[in-house]
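Ticket opened by: R.M.
Priority: normal
Category: complex prediction / small molecule

The reporter submitted a protein together with FE2/S2 (inorganic) cluster and asked that the result be attached to this ticket for the collaborator who will pick it up next week. Submitted input follows.
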Amino acid sequence: MSSKAVVTPRAPDGASFEIYLAWSDCTLNVEANQTALQVLLEAGVAISPGCFTGGCGECATAYVEGDMIHKDSCLNAADRQRLFCPCVSRARTSIVIAE
Ligand code: FES
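Result attached by the on-call engineer:
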């Protein structure tokens, strides 16, 4: 369990944030002009996106830490406690993904 994901300052909506991949001990930076999906795919994370607009849920990815800014229209409140759609959603803090 990593604690470094929650020590970063809170970022405004649309700002850059970090994704920590727990299985590879790798931190990815999502710049303000990128989506988390772009960054995860470029890093080789196995995600099969569909709509790219937050509507289908195909890209839904589990996270274990982080304060998400959910922008999808497909996940319910319970889903959002453990999943986010990286094609549209962002985060106020660093987040941790554990495969
Ligand atoms: S690709 Fe459809 S919700 Fe992300």
